[in-house]
Amino acid sequence: MAEIFYSPYFGISLTIISFFVGQKIQKKTGLMICNPLLIAVVLIIGILLVFRIPYEAYQQGGAVINMFLAPATACLAVSIYNKIQILKEHWLPILVGCTCGSSASMISVYIMCKIFHLDDAVTAAMIPKSVTTPIAVSIAESLGGLPSITVVVVIFTGILGSIFAPIMLKIFGVTESMTAGISIGACSHAIGTSKAIQIGETEGAMSGLAVGICGIITVIFSIFI
Prior knowledge:
The chain has 225 residues and is mainly α. The protein has helices at 2-5, 8-29, 36-50, 55-66, 69-74, 77-82, 84-89, 91-115, 120-126, 133-142, 147-171, 177-199, 201-222. The radius of gyration is 18 Å and the shape is globular.
């Protein structure tokens, strides 16, 4: 039986099934809190704990899924290309917005970490929380942070953005598609972008663009930390 758990097919199948269940629950309930990714994470952790399956066994398949993180992020370029004219016309406000978003994220995290007296390794791991996972992990490692913490924080940030983005847009009266997309992408990277795509094509394209620009800006800012 143990050999089955250590097969890559086990981790891959468990992940796909858990996410599928999460999608069904969200469609059934219609609740934003029932985010498919959040549900999948809870289900996977619960199954591993209940059946006492070692994380190393699950990771045999999880590592295969991780390989697709970078290509999946790169695929966002398709939606960006479809809205290239908007980018050409509004490149300055887009660049300024992404710069402000990245700066606010990094500075707020740094200040909060200092207030709660977190050590340097944890602080470095949390600073790139608002950029997509492959970039965030690289930044954290270069700063001496803990990549495992970075992954958790990045995913949690993305889930929060995906859940609360529509609510925040309504609260602040954001109706312009480009502004909404840039805001979501700058704060909650690729996971938030998946929600932005559901809101609208332009929102998804601008959010995907913000993911790339904010990633570059965060890398540059991290050099001076």
